[in-house]
Amino acid sequence: MISLSDFLIVSAGLFCIGLYIILTKRNAIQVLIGIELMLNAAILNLVAFGKYDRLNNGGQMFALFAIVLAAATTAVALAIILNVYKKYKTIDPNNINELRD
Amino acid sequence: MTMVKVLFYLMGFIALASAIFIAASKNLVRSVFMFFVTLLSIAGLYVLALADFIAITQVVIYVGGILVLMLFAFMLSGRETLANLQQQNDHFLSISKLPALLLAVLFFIVMINILFKTDINHLQWVTKSVSYKIDIKPDSPMTGNIGVNLMTMYLLPFEAISILLMMALVGAAHLSRREKNV
Lengths: 101, 182
Known about the structure:
A: mainly alpha, Helix Hairpins, 74% helix, 0% strand, B: mainly alpha, 2 domains, 8 helices
């Protein structure tokens, strides 16, 4: 079977690519994609460790919870991004530097 | 080299390559569609980790829900938004991205280093679980077990997350409402 370290290497790579996307992209939707990529790397770790727990399956259960949380986060974040675009006419995170009032 | 290994390396390669493509591409729509490929190959990795229910959930929620939501969000928001979002004049490797690249690579090296120093395949609880035979086998029934656990042991997190999901729904609907007097 596939060993645990193979999964962890793949997920470390995904996490670092997500980090790079977040740091370099100048577009809030692409930054959101980077965040989702990092979340998926973490969920992959949970699932890979959850293979060794058949009775309680805590890893798979919290992977489920994390997926649902990511869905809620994305819905709210997209609504916020649309509002920010309406107010500033840009979604570059570098240019959004003033409060509403 | 068994078939499972071959499939694992294929899925891992597709996931990493499409993630690198997302990081390199300048086109927003293309990177969102490439994110589809990444998520589907991660679902394949979940299947290879013997978590078939999580894989189906990943396909249904991420690919069916989140990505369609992302596509909706900027395709329904007008033509000038779309034109505005797509013009980015930056290159994949420029000098201004060197700190980010350095940070990502160093973080990767740190994580791999930790991974090999802890000898992750022979952790104490992992070997104990294998010797007690409570690790998941390919023929063990998992979906029913997840359902029973969700209604008994993890009932409190389940209810908490349902309340949080409802709050997020109300909040998103409130945020995206068109205000008349602004």
